[in-house]
Every structure is written in C-alpha cells, then in structure tokens.
C-alpha cells in the first residue's frame, strides 16, 4: 500500500488542478456557478447574454422581471432608431453569451482579445453595424471599468488621415495626422480615434484590425465593453477577415436567461451545417450593411395571416423590407403586419382577458398555450416554438407575446427579425453566395 501512496497523491493533485482550471476568473462569470468559467476552445467562442448571471457587470441588486423587460424594450427603441439611420478554409467557433446580466446590455457578447500582450474585452455582436470599437483608457462617459489600454500594447498604431479606412468611418475628421470620427449608436453619441491592433477570436489572430478607440460617450446605448461589427461593409469582421473566414459566419444565440457562454459564433465556411434551408440575401445600396431577406408571409398556427403585400415588400428606395438583426431583442413588424399577426394570435386565445405591459399589448395572466408562428421566406420557413414567442414573468403568471409594432416614425417601414425569435437557431450568413440559412439548434 505504501507504494501506491505517491500515485494517489499525484492523481488527487491532478484532479484538483482540473477543478481549479474550470473555475471562473475575475472577468466574466466571477463569483458565479462553475458553468460561467471555461476557456474558449479552438475556433469556437463561448457567448453569454449580457443579463446572464455570469456577467460581472450586472447590477448588484439585479432587476425584477418587469424592470428587465421594460429596460430591454426601451433599449430596443434606440436600436431601431439606429437601424433607421443606416441608409472558406478556416473553421473558427467562438462561445457567445447573452450580455443582459454580464455587461448589462440587451445584446450578445463574445470574448475578443486585443493587442500584444492580449487584453480581453466582452464585445457585443452586431450584424447591422460594420466598425468595431472599444472604450479606451481615459474615455469620458464610458460605462465600463474594463477598458482597453493602448499604452500596454506593442502592436497598437494610429490610422492616418490619408488611409482608405479613414474615409470608411462616419463623419471622419483629422487632428494632425491621426484619423478620428463621430457617430451615433441608438441614443448615444460616440467620439473615437481610428487605430489598428491585433484582434483574436478564439485561436485566430487578425493582424492590423482597424477599429475605433472611444474617447468620449454620451448616452447609455453603447455596449459597455465595445462592439464587433458583423455587417457587410469594408470595416466589418466579414470584410477585414475575409481571407481567413471567406465572408461566411453563423451563430446560435442562447436564451437571455442562459447562465453560460453556451452559444457560438462559427466563423468561416468549414463546419457549417449541411442540412439547412436558405433564403436569398437582398442588397439595399442605401443600407448596405443590413442583411435584408424576402419575407413573403406569416402563419399563426396553420393559418396564413392576411397581410397587405406592401407591408412585407422590399423597397431599396424607402428602406422597406425585412432584416435579421442580432442587436434588437424583440421582433418588430410594420403596423399592418403586426396587427394582423396579433389579432390572429388573440383569436387562438379565445376569451382570455388581454392586458398590456409597456409596449407589449398582448399579455395574459392565465396559463397560455401559444400557437406556433411561422415566418415564411422565399425558399424557407422559420417556425418559432413557444419559448421564442412568449416572454414569461418569473414573479407571477403574466405572459406576453414577445413582438410589437414598429414605432411611429422610427423604422415604420422595416420588419426586424430580432434576437429573441432567433434564439436556439443556427443562423448562417453566406455572403459570397448571397444567402441566409436557418435551422433549429438548441444552444441555451
């Protein structure tokens, strides 16, 4: 037995090290369940919703369910305003999470390492924005205590005024030889300098990635630790890492109640689902970053709802049509389409009493068995299960239809397929072949 003693000690030590390696660090997930820990592996990044319990930036006391819903809904309004203002080889998978409890933002976040040596930022993923930007040291008005420190990176450098990238940012200005820009994001105004540094998602470094280093922020709409643009413009990840990922990516968004980085952002054509149905991507020159698709009808249960054709039609001149967007929480439909869907949904509830909560006008205080809702696109259908249709109170029995009409004068012509309705689906953006695919995939 004495000869076994050193071996037993070695095994116990090894197991202890394994347990310790899986504990959360002082970053995302600090102080939470061990599910919050774990490193990004290979080319897959773990993703959390900003409201996940793993978030180090969630409010100390937390928010009630009603407060959370109303806050997300208010932030959606700013998001919709932003949308209106917008006129392969390598396999890489990055964990993503709901940012709702992590960084107190109604977005999805992924860990991105920036600089040499690397500094980790929990950046929001945004399919309707191009440029990346992060709060930098000395930022005035930035909400997060986690900022990028350029002085600590040996690969950090400024982008000059004569560089092509300086003309690709909104409202560029020059101070000396350095390029700066100003932009609005939702209800926030952002002033930033334009710089380059190495970005790494999982194991894949992208050298000389052009991004904004935020110097000043007003308002509360900007994601606290920055944003990674996944749009179609020249400064997006899709374009800047085109050689690496061939302008192809997909994601699976977990529920915003998910406790871990259980979702994933999969970069590049390798490893993408084979059995997936597609609909063509449409291009709007006036809103070139947005991923437009052709929504041809909506079904509630088995019945196709009677919607005026002009409510769904794609019109590049007016910006009308339908887009997939990762930054809006609840799907918005132009008023004629929403009213038709809502009324068909209410009819299936028979005589149940309807109430409202904030902008949600179809809520019930009795148990609800919701019909499925199917978005019918050219070439594919996307049928939503109940979890993607209803938002439930954790403190009571209230359930609401998690959709709303597009607000007056803000995206009044734009239908937005938002993140709650995309949850637990693999959404594939194949830009070279101009198509978008959707398939069910549990990732919460």
Descriptive account of the structure:
- The protein is mainly beta and about 450 residues long.
- The chain has two domains: about 25-265, Cathepsin D, subunit A, domain 1 (Beta Barrel), CATH 2.40.70; about 275-440, Cathepsin D, subunit A, domain 1.
- Helix content is about 15%, strand content about 35%.
- The chain contains six helices and 29 strands.
- It has helices spanning about 5-20, 65-85, 235-240, 240-245, 335-350, 420; strands at about 45-50, 90-100, 110-115, 120-125, 130-140, 155-160, 170-175, 180-185, 190-200, 205-220, 225-230, 250, 265, 275-280, 290-295, 295-300, 305, 320-325, 330-335, 355, 360-365, 375, 380-385, 390, 400, 405, 415, 425-430, 435-440.
- The strands form four sheets. It has a 19-stranded mixed beta sheet that branches. A four-stranded antiparallel beta sheet has the order 17-16-22-23, covered by helices on one side. The chain has a four-stranded antiparallel beta sheet with strand order 20-21-25-24, with no helix packed on it.
- The longest helix has 21 residues, at about 65-85.
- It is globular and about 65 Å long.
């Amino acid at each position: 037995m004495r000869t076994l003693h050193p071996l037993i000690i070695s095994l116990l030590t090894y197991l202890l090290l394994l347990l310790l390696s899986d504990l959360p660090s002082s970053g995302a997930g600090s102080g939470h369940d061990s599910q919050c820990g774990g490193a990004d592996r290979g080319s897959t990044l773990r993703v959390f919703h900003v409201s996940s319990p793993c978030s180090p930036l969630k409010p100390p006391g937390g928010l009630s369910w009603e407060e959370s819903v109303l806050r997300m809904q208010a932030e959606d309004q700013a998001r919709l305003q932003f949308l209106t203002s917008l006129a392969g080889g390598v396999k890489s998978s990055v964990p993503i999470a709901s940012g709702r409890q992590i960084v107190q933002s109604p977005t999805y976040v992924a860990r991105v390492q920036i600089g040499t040596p690397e500094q980790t930022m929990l950046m929001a993923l945004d399919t309707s924005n191009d440029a990346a930007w992060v709060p930098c040291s000395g930022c005035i008005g930035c909400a997060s205590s986690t900022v990028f420190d350029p002085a600590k990176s040996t690969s950090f450098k400024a982008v000059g005024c004569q560089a092509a990238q300086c003309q690709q940012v909104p409202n560029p200005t020059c101070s000396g030889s350095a390029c700066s820009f100003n932009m609005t994001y939702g209800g926030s105004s952002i002033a930033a300098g334009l710089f380059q540094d190495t970005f790494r998602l999982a194991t894949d470094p992208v050298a000389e990635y052009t991004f904004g280093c935020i110097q000043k922020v007003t308002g509360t709409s900007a994601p606290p630790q920055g944003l990674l643009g996944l749009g179609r413009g020249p400064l997006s990840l899709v374009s800047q890492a085109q050689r690496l990922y061939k302008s192809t990516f997909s994601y699976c968004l977990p529920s915003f109640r998910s406790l871990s980085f259980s979702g994933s952002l999969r970069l590049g054509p390798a490893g993408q689902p084979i059995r997936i149905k597609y609909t063509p991507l449409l291009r709007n020159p006036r809103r070139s970053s947005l991923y437009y698709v052709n929504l041809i009808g909506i079904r509630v249960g088995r019945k196709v709802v009677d919607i005026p054709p002009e409510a769904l039609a794609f019109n590049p001149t007016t910006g009308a049509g339908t887009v997939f967007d990762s930054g809006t929480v609840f799907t918005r439909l132009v008023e004629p389409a929403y009213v038709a869907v809502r009324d068909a949904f209410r009819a299936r509830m028979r005589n149940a009493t309807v109430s409202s909560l904030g902008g949600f006008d179809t809520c019930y205080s009795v148990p609800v068995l919701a019909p499925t809702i199917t978005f019918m696109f050219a070439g594919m259908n996307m049928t939503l299960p109940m979890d993607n249709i209803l938002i439930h109170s954790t403190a009571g029995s209230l359930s609401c239809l998690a959709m709303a009409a597009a607000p007056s004068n803000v995206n009044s012509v734009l239908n937005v397929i938002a993140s709650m309705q995309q949850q637990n689906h693999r959404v594939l953006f194949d830009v070279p072949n101009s198509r978008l695919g959707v398939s069910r995939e549990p990732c919460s």
